[in-house]
Write a structure and sequence with these properties.
- This protein is mainly β and about 180 residues long.
- The chain is built from no helices and 16 strands.
- The protein has a 4-stranded antiparallel sheet with strand order 3-4-5-6, with no helix packed on it. Strands 7-8-9-10 form a 4-stranded antiparallel sheet, with no helix packed on it.
- The chain starts with a strand and ends with a strand.
Length: about 180
């Protein structure tokens, strides 16, 4: 068994919380803090392929299964100012890019139009106005898909290809994108 530990510095002193002590070697972790400094975490359990979402927004840690996606590689997390939680996923079996939006009854799946056989790097961003932006790399290059105008649109992004990590940096306010 593995353990997911949240290490934080509160009041100038480092401490830790055990978030999940039964996880089987969690992978693809993503963490973010909301405007109230509550922690939001998503990860995939290696043995079950279940993508889990955990938060301490209520003071203690709570867990919610997002979806079971065999082969899910990256699970980006986006938090909106209104408290909405979004989890992005590539579903390799169904060749879909999808967003899971948290609701009171669980997570609702929203599929992007089109087929996505291979996705190598995946980033999810959202705006307070309600738009979602996926930034991702496929065999054909880098792309941005968004629903800013109410319909999904996709456009290629020119990024110089180099050897090394393939993670995108995006600044929605400046309409710019870089790569690390």
């Amino acid at each position: 068994n593995g353990t997911i530990i949240h290490i934080h510095n509160s009041s100038g002193e480092w401490t830790h919380d055990i978030v999940d002590h039964e996880v089987q070697y969690g992978r693809n972790q993503c963490m973010d803090l909301d405007s109230q400094d509550a922690t939001h975490l998503v990860y995939t359990d290696n043995t079950s392929d279940i993508v889990n979402y955990m938060t301490n927004v209520s003071g203690g840690w709570t867990s919610h299964a997002v979806a079971e996606i065999p082969g899910a590689m990256e699970v980006p997390l986006a938090l909106k100012a209104n408290g909405s939680v979004l989890v992005g996923l590539h579903d390799p079996e169904q060749e879909q890019l999808c967003i899971y939006r948290k609701s009171d009854s669980g997570f609702e799946r929203i599929n992007l139009p089109g087929q996505f056989p291979k996705v190598y790097s995946l980033n999810l961003l959202s705006t307070d106005a309600g738009a979602y932006y996926f930034v991702y790399r496929t065999d054909e290059g880098w792309f941005v898909s968004n629903n800013a105008n109410g319909n999904w649109t996709t456009m290629p992004v020119n990024i110089e290809e180099t050897n090394g990590p393939n993670h995108a940096l995006v600044d929605l306010e400046q309409n710019s994108m870089g790569r690390i």
